[in-house]
Amino acid sequence: MTSPAETAAVFVRLDQSAPGPGQIALVSGGDVPLFRLDLPKGLRGQAREQVARRQLSDRFGLTPEQVQMRPFAPGGLGEGWNRVLVAPPSLLADWRGLECRAVLPDYLSLPCAEGVWTVAPQGEMMLARLGPDDGFSATLALTLPMLERALTEQGRPGALYLPEPIPALEDWANSQSIPVAHNESELTAQALPMPQILAHDELSSDLRQDPMAARTRLTANVLPWRWPLLAGALAAALFAASQIVAIQRLGAETDSIAAQTHALVQQHFVPSGPVLDVRVQVARALSQLRAATSGQSKQVDPVQMGWQVAEVVASLSAVPDSLIWRDGDGIQLVLRLPDFAATDRLTTAFSSAGLKAELVESRASTDAQGVRAEFRIQPGGSQ
């Protein structure tokens, strides 16, 4: 707890002397009362401040012309504050020019802790701190009823801390069964937290600062950017809409082309039956058309041609792997030969047998000795 000497060096009453740069100016708490309001938990920012002003006007008859308010949020309450400091605008204007550490109502200079009420005399006035989030300055005659009201609203504290004896308050505390403590050792004996000075962010309630004015200035700085931001958002929305339209148009064109392709295939290549695979069915139809155009479908006998191929392969002692007949393409023959030179001899033998042999591929066998060769054989060699 701060000693009396240290407290005297930190705090200066504004009605007695001018504060220095590192000191805290104290003004009469009677000029800056602390009001408790009933604010919804969900409200934040300017909406919360507007409701607070309305309640001040409705419940206490205080208009913005008469008083200005400052949200009181000790201990990091942030946006959840429900108490406000109010003061006449003329006094706030006078205090705004003071060059000091802060300007506070005098009751915020008292030490405080949760569950401990602190009351100390200041001349003819009583300064009271009813925990970190409440306090007042009043005469002794008004202090007692105000403590009665706080007792009804907040419940009985753990102790009434009186750094200086005040018989009337001690009698009142005894009548309410509230323990009285005059020093640190008595508080420690009751296992209560030790009241401390300026330990609950009281400096954030500096009366020279107006958080609402700061927010207004921030709003004024941000507002000029609202039209460029709105224009940018509108441009982005228009671009996205144009892309969606383009994608939809491309999809419609793709569907139209697919439908036209399906109709053409149905008309020219697959006159009967469904169109299942355009590529395969068109390739098959074209193969049949080529065969019909070259006359192979009438002249070529696959069985006879197969015997001719077999005779040639047997004459050269080649080992066939597979023999496949394809309409329009003739015979696809895969066989094994002793060497690459045998592919030329086999081509010549096919030609002599009246077959046209085309070497598709030849390579060394990987799983056996010799050469693996693939031929495409059609009728038409020299006799």
Characteristic key phrases:
single chain, 383 residues, alpha/beta, Gyrase A, domain 2, 3 domains, 4-stranded antiparallel sheet, 12 helices
Overview of the structural elements:
It comes from Thalassobius vesicularis. It is found in: Cell inner membrane. InterPro entries: GspL_pp_dom, T2SS_protein-GspL. Pfam families: GspL_C. This is GspL periplasmic domain-containing protein. The protein is an alpha/beta fold and 383 residues long. It folds into three domains: 4-209, no CATH class; 227-293; 300-379, 2-Layer Sandwich (Gyrase A, domain 2). Helices cover 43% and strands 21% of the residues. The protein has twelve helices and 15 strands. It has helices at residues 4-10, 45-60, 89-96, 140-154, 167-175, 184-189, 211-222, 226-268, 278-294, 296-299, 302-315, 341-352, and strands at residues 11-13, 24-27, 34-36, 68-72, 83-87, 102-105, 116-122, 125-130, 135-139, 159-161, 180-181, 319-326, 330-337, 355-364, 371-379. Strands 9-8-7-10-11 form a five-stranded mixed β-sheet. It has a four-stranded antiparallel β-sheet with strand order 12-13-15-14, covered by helices on one side. A hairpin with a 2-residue loop joins strand 7 (116-122) and strand 8. The mean pLDDT is 85.
